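Final paragraph of the annual report: two paired records, presented back to back.
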Amino acid sequence: MHGKKVTIVEVAKAAGVSIGAVSRILSNDPKLNVRAETRESVLKVIEELGYAPNPQARSLRTARTNSFAMIVPEIDSPAFPAIIEGAQSAAHERGYSMLLGGVGEHGEDPTLADRLISKNRVDGLLISTGRREPADMPELKTLKAPSVLVNRYLNDSHPHVILDDFAGAMALTRYLIELGHKRIAFVGELNRFLGIRRVGGYKAALEAAGISYDAALTIDAGYAREGGQTGIEALLGLALPPTAVFATNNLVAAGVLLGAQRRGLNVPTDISVASFYDGPVSELLNPALTAVRYPLHQLGADSATMLIDIIEERDVSISRVIPFETIVRRGSTAPPR
């Protein structure tokens, strides 16, 4: 490993101690009370990994900006306002300012994070990627400031806060099954981190109910309204169409509703529709949408708190999974005919 690419987070994880303990051992903090063998173990890991603290960063520690940036794939997505608000609230409570950057629909700007960090503008980053997965972002490994992934995942060593999408998808599918549906479609992203987890929960619920998985009922539609429209068109063209649709988010669900209604179908009499991430948009659709509710505000707040703790070299767990809250039942779902 090249020393410049090893972070204090990786050292702490490899040594089995906190980030704060590593920092205090490096600075020979006289108030640190650790066993001699622990200190030796940490120093050995530092040597093996080739970790080298950044002297410039250390000299600037008293001149922190007390600010961080949050990078999101699109600011107008229905889920992000609550996440952003949560991060902003946590930042305010800790005396930090938060900058907001959107990478846009065409994918990440690979220079954005580095430009925000340069000239000491921010102390760290919250990153929620768009089209690219974190594993496809080599720039993440060379950033000269800590970062926390928000509902995204790279590996166990990179700090992250994620929602338990698997459990939520399983619960929502099980709810549709309990209504009496057996032909349940999934419309949305299938292959990326979030999509894999949601499809996994969907399949697990089918299996638990003894319902055979039918690949024809899973439509790779991404996260946009247009994907929902094309997805429902494809499903309604099947010899045996579904009686219920699990949409991956509110935008896809809106497309499914629109496509079904344009075909003259009544929701939920002819087909039920349910979705992820309940929020204000769920109530504005016609009919109002049954959806899984997650504490999105908490996702933002916990992510920001984790990042600030890492910046300040406090003891912190670098992995957190947030469970879903409930299924909000509205007018878009009913038993099949």
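The closing record of the year follows.
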Amino acid sequence: MGLELLLSTHPERHMQTPSRQRAHPATSGNLPPTFLRMSTVVHMTGLCRSTIYRLIAENKFPTPVRLSDRAVAWRQTDLDRWSAERMPAPH
């Protein structure tokens, strides 16, 4: 079933309530930052926890943001920038 047919036969499926609508990142300039916790950062970078903290101490990795007394997270924009600055691996 094509998307056009699905939308024309079931218009309520593609409608969202205003509270659940999300702006597309490319069209909205005032989105709140996305924070990523350690497990996501480990998965995203392929680095282990100890390597991440070593690189932070060497000022070679983005510093986390304190969310509460016992919780830190990284801004996704900081991690995306860090990743874009990495040199590609030779093959």
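The first helix runs from residue 3 to 9. This concludes the annual technical report; the extension proposal builds directly on these records.
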